[in-house]
Sequence to fold (223 residues):
Amino acid sequence: DQQVKQNSPSLSVQEGRISILNCDYTNSMFDYFLWYKKYPAEGPTFLISISSIKDKNEDGRFTVFLNKSAKHLSLHIVPSQPGDSAVYFCAAGPFYNDMRFGAGTRLTVKP
Amino acid sequence: GAGVSQSPSNKVTEKGKDVELRCDPISGHTALYWYRQSLGQGLEFLIYFQGNSAPDKSGLPSDRFSAERTGGSVSTLTIQRTQQEDSAVYLCASSATNSPLHFGNGTRLTVT
Fold:
């Protein structure tokens, strides 16, 4: 029962360009959407979130876009830096304490 | 340290043995979660503790898995009679009310 899907297991981008990571969900009752970033041998760390009352949230180089009608969200990183290379997890749920996670997308930013 | 602490960081065990994984949440966080990540998979929810309420055990894959949280703080995840399919990274997270989860670095469990 994959309620949150990240269909691209990997993405490679040149330093300085934009990285776009995508996520789809199936449950229209989901109101909270988060992105986590994970380095090897570390736990995921919270990156940015958005609630269903918004369609965009920006924090520095990171912007999350939400399209509720399409049940789709995306994370934009611009400009991408080599230190952004990590696995990015999308999470969605009706509450913060009831989140479903995607399988992750491995981002590689090439110098 | 102010983060979520998990121990051990790595555990290798023989099939059929029991294992205990420990989690120290961030002080003051009322919610505690256990997830696991198998190779190439996303984060699979296992169990959730909130304050003094009965835990949400809906994600536990079998009755070989159990968890407890003593005194509203430290939690132990126990896996009895381990199987090879239990091999995964077990992640603990804690959170304040209506806030994002803070994860520990996980315990990598290998069942041989």
Q: What stands out?
A: The mean pLDDT of chain A is 95. Residues 12 and 108 of chain A are 5 Å apart (CA to CA).
